[in-house]
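<purpose> Linking amino acid order to shape
<body> The protein record starts here
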Amino acid sequence: MNQQTKRRVSAVLTGAVALALSTSLHAWGNSCEHKRELEERLDLSSSDSLSIVAAAGDLEIRGEDGAEAATVQATICASEEEWAEEADLAMDGGREARIAVVMPDANGMSWNNSYVYMDLVIVVPSDIELDVRDSSGDIEINRVASLAVKDSSGDLDIDTADSVSVSDSSGDIEINRVDGDVTIVQDSSGDIRGRDIQGSVIVARDSSGDIRFQDVGDDFVVERDSSGDVVARTIGGDFAVLRDGSGEVRYEDVAGSVDIPEGK
């Protein structure tokens, strides 16, 4: 990675954090005073994994069988022309490839009526390991391999993956058609729903919102839940809720044992 690329990548977190603090995140979705579009391609023929670092804006990732490159379509919208021109993508190939959104330096910006965001559509090889980090905006991911997602805000929709791990702050999570295991490392707020999971499901920590899984091939375990209902239907292994605050626990058609708190 050359020095210029390093400087561009180092700006990602600064810009992303400042953008996430905008008080008009819902409003900018319908605003695009200054618009710029980018199309990029990253060779992944020698890559084992790909990390994607997004900022404010919606993110769509689609897996494509037989692909040897990632193709990126970016739409940048900003209230200031110079911000639209400064927003960019930093990309690196190799075994651990990387695509990162680079936002303008947000120091000193006033966010009363200001915005800059980048919507992304990324097509990747369907067999590459993915590590996705996003600050705000909805995420949709389809037909991928091993997937880890860390998201701050916005809804997350995953359909068809080999395995899934999620850490999320706010927004609903929906996960369908996973060949292996699903792990919810942490979720602060929003519902969690899943269906057609061939492996096990573990929800390590959830603060608020309902948890609902159906058609799970192996165990379904909720280790810690603060509030919201927990619903399990058609579980191939054991079903357990180890710690639960408020909300109901309901289950049906569990092949293994059931372990839930007394009184639930």
